[in-house]
Amino acid sequence: MTIKVGDRLPSATLMTMTPDGPQPVDTDSYFRGRTIALFAVPGAYTPTCSARHLPGYIEQADALRAKGVDEIACLAVNDVFVMASWGKSSGADGKVTMLADGNGDFTKALGLEMDATRFGMGLRAQRFSMIVKDGVVTALNVEEPGAFKVSAAEFMVGQL
Fold first, then answer.
1. DSSP 3-state percent helix, strand, coil across the chain (nearest 5)
2. In whole angstroms, what is the distance from residue 27 CA to residue 50 CA?
3. pLDDT on residue 118
4. Cβ within 8 Å of residue 128, ≥6 positions away
5. Rounded Cα distance, 83 and 16, in Å
6. Which of 144, 127, 121, 103 is nearest to 49 (CA)?
7. What residues pair up with 75 in beta bridges, in sequence order?
8. C-alpha–C-alpha distance, residues 53 and 72, integer Å
9. Which of 49, 69, 140, 152 is catalytic?
10. Looking at 41-95, which runs of residues are DSSP E strands?
11. pLDDT tens digits along 52-78
């Protein structure tokens, strides 16, 4: 079942890179008591994700924070090392937190996975964005396959 507005996020463990190396991120703790702009991409370093999706959130970070967002997070079904490298090479440090869902467990629990095996990519996240307040989804934007509009940072700024 796909998550919807009003639902609480499922419990899961994601990973992020810190100065001390990879660290687990418990979703219950991470989203508790804060407003998070979460967006997901099919894959780090992929064309639209690298040219438009992540850069848009980096560019709109101040505008999102001015509208009450405490943190911006990028999610992908990639390993923590790839996500850290992509974030660093994209200039996301200090603006967007890179969250790795290495096995896709969180993405599957959201019901927002896609099968990209025909492209040699396996299970991936659909392209989406959401506003999460204290662990509850208050806005959800899921792209049609091949589209990039409603999950963009500029679209989210307009929603807040």
1. 30, 30, 40
2. 25
3. 85
4. 39, 40, 112, 140, 141, 142, 143, 151
5. 8
6. 127
7. 40, 99
8. 13
9. 49
10. 71-76
11. 899 999 999 999 999 999 999 999 999
Question: Which residue bears the tokens 């440090």?
Answer: 93
Instruction: Give the whole-angstrom CA distance, residue 9 versus residue 3.
Output: 8
Please say whether the beta carbons of 65 and 156 come within 8 A.
no
Give SS3 for 71.
Answer: strand
* CA distance linking residue 52 with residue 110, whole number of Å: 24
Can you tell me which residue has the tokens 């780090």?
44
Q: Delineate the domains of the chain, giving CATH numbers in brackets.
A: 13-159 (3.40.30.10)
Strand partners, 23: 16
**Euclidean distance between CA atoms 64 and 66, whole angstroms:** 5
Q: Tell me, yes or no, if 49 is annotated catalytic.
A: yes
Q: Tell me what the mean pLDDT of segment 13-23 comes to.
A: 97
Per-residue pLDDT at 64: 98
Percent of the chain at pLDDT > 70 equals 100
